[in-house]
Amino acid sequence: YGLIYDHDAPAYAGVRLTMRGNRVAEAEVIVARERNPGPWADPKQFRIDPRLEVVLTKGDRASRRQLIAAAQGYAASVERNDGTLRARFAPGCDRIENGQLVSRGDVGSIGLVKSPGQYAQGCEAQLKMGLYHPVDRVRGRRVLAVDEERGLVMMASIADFGLARRQYTLTDGRSVESDRHHAMSRELFEVYKVVGGRIEAIQAVSVDQPFGMPVAW
């Protein structure tokens, strides 16, 4: 997860390799370029979150099954975004997509209301507010790798936005409107940091795709 150069321009990328012996058997790359719709931050300012490299104490570690459940719980919370949490979050948890902080401030994940930070800030608060309600489903979820020592889960999926109705209602009763006008799918490569069973940070590469695009793997 990080930066690559695509046609001599920096781009955000998530890469999965499968090795058989010392040979590459499979390669999967998700690339977010600057002109692709959605959040985008200056690649020159991008740094890997140092928390992703931290080796956890045994008391803060979770099992492989628990780590996968945390990532799946987050995806389920987004898909069924009715204000009910299906994962636990550490205080201060934030989501970064294509280098851009999307869980605070004016910029948010594509397909949501504009400036979602004015309604709620942070992973937990935004899900409780129902800001991700335009997501119809998160399908094709695949766990790519798990690192129990560092509390990391890497997952790929596709989020579908049918947007039959652009307006939706938050859990506090306020009516808001999606920032997109047409149906779309969003391909995702996500890295979750889980400490003590709670999601502490989410880093993602997200790419706009045709609505209903099949899962490649």
Please provide a written account of the structure.
The structure is a single chain. This protein is 11% helix and 41% strand. By secondary structure, the chain is mainly β. β10 (184-195) and β11 form a beta hairpin. The longest helix has 16 residues, at 64-79.
What gross morphology would you assign?
globular
- Measured as a percent range, the helix fraction is 10-25%
Spatial ordering of strands, largest sheet: 5-4-11-10-7-6
Unreliable sequence segments: none
SSE diagram, text form:
Elements: E1 2-6, E2 9-20, E3 23-32, H1 64-79, E4 89-97, E5 100-101, H2 123-129, E6 137-147, E7 152-161, E8 167-169, E9 175-177, E10 184-195, E11 198-209
Parallel strand pairs: 4-11
Antiparallel strand pairs: 1-2, 2-3, 4-5, 6-7, 7-10, 8-9, 10-11
Nutshell version of this structure?
The chain has a six-stranded mixed β-sheet with strand order 5-4-11-10-7-6, with helices on one face. A three-stranded antiparallel β-sheet has the order 1-2-3, with no helix packed on it. It has a two-stranded antiparallel sheet with strand order 8-9.
List keywords for this structure.
217 residues; mainly beta; 11% helix; 41% strand
